[in-house]
Each structure stands twice: as structure tokens, then as C-alpha cells.
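User: My instructor asked us to take a sequence, write out its structure as C-alpha cells, and then describe one feature of it. I'm not sure where to start. Here is the sequence I was given:
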Amino acid sequence: MSGTSVHLPDLTGSTAVVTGANSGLGLETAKVLAGRGARVVLAVRDTDKGERAAAHIFGETEVRPLDLADLASVRGFADAWKGDLALLVNNAGLMAVPESRTADGFETQFGVNHLGHFALTNLLLEHVTGRVVTVSSGLHRAVSGIDFDNPNLEGRYTPYRAYGQSKLANLLFTLELQRRLDEVGSPVLATAAHPGYAATNLQSRSGNHLHDGLLRIGNRILAQSASAGALPTVYAATQDVPGAFFAGPTGLLVNGAPGPSGRSAAARDADAARRLWDLSEEMTATSFPL
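Assistant: Let's start with the prediction itself. The C-alpha cells for your sequence are:
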């Protein structure tokens, strides 16, 4: 693994799905996995962008359409899947965007970052043989819990409240998924990762030109590269770690080599994790299949 002493295993013969792999962290994750021999499926909303990204990846790739803001698209992707899947990387996401709704009426950040990946995981889980890695954020600490009575934050929406809730949901999802996998004796692991402060186009979609401009300056001055930001995801996907492990950069400025990362008390709440799972099943009409 570039910039660290971590040994990456040979992934020849395995298949990985990386959502949102046409740019940023997803693209860099796909590059590393393909470089170690995995066949990487780029699951992307815009397949033209996906094909252009795949052209820059050394290794075996395939591009398939997936719109996490539309559960019909999620179901279509899963229905078309055949064969084993060693690694599912739930990477795609939105950050601090203006208030909007998905095709199914969910608040968009909660819908894309959490519910879309929740449904995708449940629909693909019977094929998964290795790990489910979900990308969260240190900004899961921005909220004290999930608003179970109003998950779409109607009348309470702010861009960062919605983003923080969705990223907290990623960690609670990972916690409960691992509990369920353990309960049925599955060898599959559920892990999570966050990139620290990494320069990607995630920080340029707020709709506020001043806000986006300041973040672009921060990206140039403070942030680590997208390739460095992807290393915790790769770590969570390939290293000898326990279930529900949360990887992140270990540097003081939220950068540096990947390793174990702390999480908030809210992200360790097993009761909230079960409650979120039940709510997510109801909202997506999908359930744990094992």
C-alpha cells in the first residue's frame, strides 16, 4: 500500500464492486484493488464517466449503471448480478448538498449515502463471500443520533445535519450488519472506513459559491490527496481486522497512514443500530437475507 508498510494480498480471481468509482475515493480504491488482481465493477450513475474512469485503471474492470437515489435502479443492479462477490465497497456519497428528495421520496443524503447502500447490501449479500466495506466520515460526530421520528429532516434540514446523520447511519448499519452476520455464523465481515480530509469533488456541490470556494482552498492547502484518502477503505477491505472495524488515517491532521479510528458514542449504540435497521427495512422494503 503506497506510503505505508501495509501488505496488500493478491486479489487475483476475486471480484469487487465499488460504488461511485468514476472519481475521487472510489476511483482510487478501484485502482488499488484492480492493481492487486481483482476484477473491479465500477457501479456508477453515469456510465460514460465510468467508462472514462475505467480507461485509467490498470487491470480488469467493468462498468455497470447504479443510481443509489432510485431503489428501482438498485434492484436492477442486484437482479443482474451473477456469481460470487468477494468485496462490496459502499463508497458513493453526497456531502452537504441543498435539500432535495430521491426518486423514492427520501432526503437525498440519507437516501443515497445510507438507504441506497443498505438496500444494495441486502440484495447482494447472498453473493458476498468476503467483506462489505462502507465509507463513513469523521463528521458522523456532527449529530448526536438518528432522528427516528423524522429521518428525512422535514422542517429541520441543514446540509451538514443531513450529512452527519447519513454518515452516522453508515456506522450503525455496519455495527448491526456485523451482529447479524455473527448471529448466523457467516464468515463475511462488515467494516467501515473514513478518508479523513481528502481533496475530492465531494466538497463542491453545496450550491453556495462562497462555501464551495473556501473548501476548494482548503483542499489545496490542508487536504491529503484522494489516493491517500482511499487508503483507509483499502485497509478495511484487505487487512486482518475484526468485524465492525472502523479504519481511518492516523495522522494528527486527519491524514497519514491508515489504522484503527475512533467513533462517537452514538455510533457504538447497539440499540440505535437495531432500530435503524428496522426503519431502513421498512423504508427500502429490503431485509437481511441470510
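For the description part of your assignment, you could build on this observation: The chain is about 40% helix and 15% strand. Try explaining in your own words what that tells you about the chain.
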